[in-house]
Hints:
Elements: H1 2-26, E1 30-31, E2 36-39, E3 42-44, E4 48-51, E5 56-59, E6 73-76, E7 81-84, E8 89-91, E9 94-97, E10 100-103, E11 108-109, E12 114-116, H2 125-128, E13 141-143, E14 148-149, E15 154-155, E16 160-161, E17 166-167, E18 172-173, E19 181-185, E20 188-193
Parallel strand pairs: 1-4, 2-5, 3-6, 4-7, 5-8, 6-9, 7-10, 8-11, 9-12, 10-13, 11-14, 12-15, 13-16, 14-17, 15-18, 17-19
Antiparallel strand pairs: 19-20
Amino acid sequence: MLFVKKIILILLSIPDKIYNFFTLKNKKVSYATYPIILGKVYISGFGIIKFGEGVKINSSLSSNPIGGDTRTILSVDKGAILEIGNHTGFSNIAISCKERVTIGNNVKIGGGVKIYDSDFHSLNFEQRKNRATDLPLKKSVILKDGCFIGAHSIILKGVTIGKESIIGAGSVVAKSVPDGEIWGGNPAKMIRKIN
């Protein structure tokens, strides 16, 4: 009976695998090895996307049923670069990359995390009133090797998360986190150093 269930699951996943293959091909995503994708990943924009080896993407309710978002969305504007390192995994996240987002090796990103490298709109009211002058500030985001971002956190523009650091679930990270520290809250603050 278990064998039959496995066969059914494989057959049900074939449409997703075909969709993902053509999505990655159409968006000219480069990869060291083809990523493991559970569900359908959504990619918009015409920027550069690079995956390392062994990247794992959960992009469906059944692949990570913790609640909230049910799909991974990668939005990379023309001229922007999204790089994801080796053996990095994430579940149902959203990345908006207007300049550069760099995610290192062995990074874990929990369900529903948002990563933004811009403000989306000008911070000046007069500029926001006119579409031509409503230009956002953009600053690169870097997640260094081995860091872990807890579910439903938000990483804002210009932030670097240090090597092997941990961001507690539900945090809003507006400033950079040094290597080897645990941060949490809104706005995120240091909780303690990792031993």
